[in-house]
Amino acid sequence: MTLHVVRLTLCVLALLLGLECTAAGQKTTTLSVDAARPVMNAVVTLEQRYGWIVTYEDPPYAYSEDLQDRTVVAGSKRRALAPKGGRLEVLGLPGSSESADPAALVNRVLDAHAASHAGERTFRVIRSSQMLHVVPMRLRDPEGEWKPIRPVLDAAVTIPQQSMTLQAFVDALSQQLTSTTGVPVATGVVPYHLFTETKVTIAASKEPARDVLVRALNASGARLSWLLLYDAFDRKYVLNIGPPGNPGLVVK
Amino acid sequence: MTSRFLQSRRSGRQNDGSWRLRGDHYAGHDYYDQSGYYCGFGGSWCWFNRDFFYLAQTNGYANVWCTVPVNEVVSFRGWDLNWQTLAEFRQELTFSSPFGGTNFGGRVATEQTLSPGTDSCYFDGSTYPPQVTLTGSNWTVAGDNTWEPDQIGWDPIVIIYYQQERAARNLPMPCESRIPQRMVISCGAYPQPFYKDHSNAAIIDFTQIAGEKAGQRIWKNFQ
After folding, report:
1. Of the N and C termini of chain A, which has fewer Cβ atoms inside 10 Å?
2. Residue B109 in contact with residue B138, Cβ under 8 Å?
3. CB distance B169–A194 less than 8 Å?
4. Do the Cβ atoms of B188 and B173 come closer than 8 Å?
5. Is the pLDDT of residue B1 over 70?
6. Residue pLDDT, tens place only, B77-110
7. Which of B138, B222, B148, B219 is nearest to B186 (CA)?
8. Are B117 and B179 in contact (CB under 8 A)?
9. What is the DSSP annotation of A116-139?
10. Is B157 touching A (CB cutoff 8 A)?
11. What number of CA atoms fall less than 13 Å from residue B170's CA on the CB side?
12. Nearest 5°: phi and psi at A15?
């Protein structure tokens, strides 16, 4: 009985602080986001809250209903296209990483995203050493038909063993992905000083690009995550790498 | 000067090699009177950064681990030769005491993000994530007490993207990523003391870019 009273008291305090409580009395929180890439914002928030590394890869948006055109200047050569996105809400997230199963929690985010998109699940989770990866699995083609897709970083790459800077490695990986997949991949924002000063020795023979990238980033000794984002106007991917939990993308 | 060194005395050398001192503390930097005592740079006076060696009350104790620069003088040295959108800054560590300067050569200066900054170039849906933290780079201080370069700027493809996208969306320019940079310096096996804060900014306008550090904003044409 005493324990219940304590839990109830903690719950009342938690509620006063804007938190939630489970039946067991654990503090829980809600993740709520309304953005062009709600899944990206959600996984970055999980990185920040729980100290995990969860990378994210955009689908190559092609259907007009999946995009928003924010061009307001008449005669602009560039169309300001971005994913349409929308709202995503996940209730009852654990208050700390100790009681959280990373893959299960990321799957809850993806389920919530599917629920807000007529039940259509477009992302899945892949595990690798000390990281999770949210990758696209389905997409509407330009005619609006759902089609299975293969994530860009599933593509096999071959890199002869050599020592090179992280910058040179990421540039080489992007070039090889471009030639292998036919979709342009460019290096985006990366930690310049770290990437030009840090050398890694990497070799790969027909290995998924994702595994090779994980190995190279781990070899750097720095905690790094990535966001592989699709530019719908230029029809290219941009590989952005940085510390996990980018505060500029974290939501409440 | 002497009046600032009241009630201070050495308490004794610790097992880890540091000195434990007791002294009065002032609004500026703390001073410790330890005449005849070695405290890390061969002189008989030490001047320590007040934040790192902060004591909660007067006549408390402080561990003296190493010397800390009292300032960092920043000067623009040019644009990166390979990536010409990066402004490069040179830093000179300064130190003063009644017995002259000290040499920080070989010590390692490391940047930290004091607190997440702001990125006014970013908009929801951008292909490039907001740049609000630093990467935690480090530099070995040269024998002349300088370290360089601190490179501030954007990748050219990001600049072109924001110039075109923000124009198409009719979003205001210039925009900037501004991040508070806190500098710390290695101190043997001890925690790295903070010695200087800066505000660094990388700025994009429709036809120009700029790198900014320590109030020096350097522009160049880029379109």
Report:
1. N
2. yes
3. no
4. no
5. no
6. 999 998 899 999 999 998 765 444 578 899 999 9
7. B138
8. yes
9. TTTT---EEEEEETTEEEEEE-EE
10. yes
11. 7
12. -65, -40
B157-167 exposure pattern, b = at least 16 Cβ within 10 A, e = fewer: bbbebbbbbbb
Q: Which one is predicted more confidently, B193 or B105? A: B105
Q: What chain B residue is nearest to A79 in terms of C-alpha separation? A: B168
CA distance A74 to chain B (A): 8
Three-state DSSP class for A14? helix
Q: State residue A38's pLDDT score.
A: 97
Tell me what the pLDDT averaged over chain B comes to: 76
SS3 (DSSP) at B3: helix
* Cβ neighbour number for residue A243 with a 10 Å cutoff: 19
CB proximity list for B188: less than 8 A, separation 6 or greater: B65, B66
How many CB atoms neighbour CB A73 within 10 A? 12
Which residues, listed in sequence order, are joined to residue A149 by a DSSP beta bridge? none
Q: What tokens does B142 get? A: 């040269």
Is B44 in contact with B37 (CB distance < 8 Å)?
yes
Contact A66, A144 (CB under 8 A): no
Amino acid B165 reads E
Mutate which of A68, A77, A174, A193 to disrupt the B interface (most B C-beta within 10 Å)? A193
For residue A24, what pLDDT band results from cuts at 50, 70 and 90? Answer: low
Selecting from B136, B158, B168 the residue whose C-beta is nearest the C-beta of A189 gives B158
Task: State the pairing for strand pair A131-136/A123-128.
Answer: antiparallel
SS3 A188: coil
The structure tokens listed for B54 are 């902060």
Per the listing, tokens 């929308």 go with: A86
For an interface test with A, the pick among B127, B160, B170 (most A C-beta atoms closer than 10 Å) comes out as B127
The reported pLDDT for the residue numbered A20 is 52
What's residue A26's pLDDT?
Answer: 67
What is the rounded distance in angstroms from the CA atom of residue A18 to the CA atom of residue A241?
A: 33
What's the pLDDT score for residue A198? 93
CA–CA dist A29, A251 (Å, integer):
12
What's the pLDDT at B191? 73
Torsion of CA B116, B120, B122, B124, to 10 degrees: 100
- Rounded to an integer, the average pLDDT of B190-202 is 88
For residue range A207-238, what is the model confidence (pLDDT) as tens digits? 999 999 999 999 999 999 999 999 999 999 99
Q: Is the peptide bond before A38 cis (omega within 30 degrees of 0)?
A: no
CA distances from A217 to A28, A158, A200, B112 (A): 32, 17, 9, 20
